[in-house]
Amino acid sequence: MAQFDFPVLDPLVTSGTELANWLNAWAQALESLHSGGTRPAYAGEGLLWLDKSGGADNWHLRLFDGANDIDLGRINSTLDGYAPTVDGKPAATVDDAIAYAIALG
């Protein structure tokens, strides 16, 4: 899990070491697509995050719209596979995935 709720920076209080630690933690969150078992508490509208609560063969790429998470697709990290979700429906087959990709343009 790599999520990090960036604190408010106060240049009169925050030390260089604290800032470096916070920036390193934030970089890890960005590099892992804010992955975790739940949406990050700091999520704002438009945050793209990786839901890893389903295990290695059932990650979900999600977009937070400010109220709910929109499921953009499933990732199987064991098999290195991706299946898109369109209008809330996961692609069940390769043909579905191709049709969804064509529909998305």
Characterization of this structure:
- With 105 residues, the protein is α+β, with helices and mostly antiparallel strands.
- The two termini are 33 Å apart.
- A hairpin with a 4-residue loop joins strand 2 and strand 3 (69-76).
- It has a 5-stranded antiparallel β-sheet with strand order 1-2-3-4-5, with helices on one face.
- It has 2 helices and 5 strands, in the order H-E-E-E-E-E-H.
Tell me the domain tally.
1
Q: Measured on Cα atoms, how large is the radius of gyration?
A: 17 Å
Largest sheet: 5 strands, antiparallel
Number of helices: 2
What is the N-to-C succession of helices and strands? HEEEEEH
State the low-pLDDT regions, or none.
none
Strand content: 15-25%
Q: Largest sheet, order of strands side by side?
A: 1-2-3-4-5
The whole-number mean of residue pLDDT values reads 87
The span between the termini is 33 Å
Secondary structure layout plus pairing:
Elements: H1 16-31, E1 48-51, E2 59-64, E3 69-76, E4 81-86, E5 89-90, H2 94-104
Antiparallel strand pairs: 1-2, 2-3, 3-4, 4-5
Notable characteristics:
105 residues, five-stranded antiparallel beta sheet, 5 strands, alpha+beta
Outline of this structure?
With 105 residues, the chain is α+β, with helices and mostly antiparallel strands. The protein is built from two helices and five strands; from the N terminus they run H-E-E-E-E-E-H.
